[in-house]
Amino acid sequence: MPENEETEQVETEPQEPQAAPEAEGAEEEPFDRKRAEAALRKKNSEAENLRRRLKELEPLAKKAKELEDAQKSDQERLTEQLTAAEKRIQTFQQRAVRSEVKALAAVEFADPEDAHAFLDLTSYVDDDGDVDTAAIQQDLKDLLKRKPHLAKPTDTSPRPPKADRTQGSSGNGNRTPTKPEEEFAGWLKQALHGGR
């Protein structure tokens, strides 16, 4: 439809300027019908040539529009691929940082998993995508100063087991007999004394 509007504009433009010179010319010169008809024919011929050229160029404009749309869709597709690739890179960088933090924390932390829970992992990747291990080490030291309970215990000697009072004799002198006849004698003794 925009092409039709242009065509209409081309058709109306020659008529409007033609009326203006005639009006001006009427004041200065007398109206000459032959000259006005010749000017009208000339303007109509020019308008016809413009319409013909417009029709010739319409298919080319349509092809240009199609190519532009195809290029735009290629750009959109490439933009989506770029976005997906950037997300994958960011995921791999975060994994690399998390692995580096766990590896460095394994030296001094009781549980290396705790270390990356307290650190901002996004701050350890520079613009080139490299992991800043020196910054990680410094932050791990600072974290251990703030939260010393996350550190490995300093005493690494084996501890003796704690006594468990539920094991062995009950401590009241009643030992469980190991022979069946002693067991039976203990049962009889309890039965005769009324279950004491």
Give the integer mean of the pLDDT values: 77
For the sheet with most strands, the description reads: none
Over all CA atoms, what is the radius of gyration? 49 Å
Helix and strand element order? HHHHH
How many beta-strand elements?
Answer: 0
**How far apart, in Å, are the first and last alpha carbons?**
111 Å
Helix proportion: 55-70%
Strand content: under 5%
The number of helical segments is 5
What form results from the Cα inertia axes? rod-shaped
Structural class: mainly alpha
Q: Uncertain segments of ≥5 residues (pLDDT<50)?
A: 1-19
Protein model, in words:
This protein has about 200 residues and is an all-alpha fold. It has 5 helices and no strands. Helix 1 packs antiparallel against helix 2 and helix 2 (about 35-110) runs antiparallel to helix 3 (about 110-120). The N and C termini lie far apart (about 110 Å).
Highlighted features:
mainly alpha; single chain; about 200 residues; 5 helices; about 0% strand
Layout of helices and strands:
Elements: H1 2-28, H2 33-108, H3 112-118, H4 133-146, H5 180-192
Short description:
With 196 residues, this protein is mainly alpha-helical. Helices cover 70% and strands 0% of the residues.
